[in-house]
Amino acid sequence: MILIERSQTDPYFNIAAEEYILKNTSGDILMFWKNAPSVVVGKHQNTLKEVNIDYVNKNQIPVIRRISGGGTVYHDEGNINYTLILESEHRETLINFKEFTKPTIEFLSTLGIEARFEGKNNLTINGKKFSGNSAHLFKNRVIHHGTLLFDSNLDILENIINHQTEGISDKAIDSIRATVTNVSQRLKKKISIDEFGSLMKSFFIDYFQIKNKRRLSVNEINEITQLAEEKYKTWKWNYGYSPKYSFKRELLIPQGLLCIEVQIKNGIIETAIISIDEVKRSDIETLITGKVHDKKELEKILNEEIPVGAFFPVSAPDQDSLD
Question: Which domains does the chain have, with CATH numbers?
Answer without folding.
Answer: 2-240 (3.30.930.10), 245-311 (3.30.390.50)
